[in-house]
Amino acid sequence: xxxxxxxxxxxxxxxxxxxxxxxxxxxxxxxxxxxxxxxxxxxxxxxxxxxxxxxxxxxxxxxxxxxxxxxxxxxxxxxxxxxxxxxxxxxxxxxxxxxxxxxxxxxxxxxxxxxxxxxxxxxxxxxxxxxxxxxxxx
Length: 138
Fold this sequence. Notes:
Elements: H1 25-46, H2 52-77, H3 85-118, E1 120-127, E2 130-137
Antiparallel strand pairs: 1-2
Helix pairs in contact: 1-2, 1-3, 2-3
């Protein structure tokens, strides 16, 4: 099955330019982690190696790792750390864009997983609280 036809993913957004001062190192690290999580999930969607277990893993990574990380950046965006109102507004916009993009990725992953599960015998089990399907093909 060619999953590339299902999605034409946008690139993960760059941090906005701060002109003079770079972003805090923690913000830069968080951006890199978020970008990597998103890129790995998109890669799975664009390859023929997509299977229910891999798809479920990436859904879990976004929901349990990336989205909470975005929430952890909210105090920075609210000016509690930098005190630079203009830059903080840029970060708020970036956080919103990143959250929408990650949410869209989860939506597409879940759609692909549903389609894949329609072709599988549904043998479910729990891995660290996440229900996944063993792909025993009909």
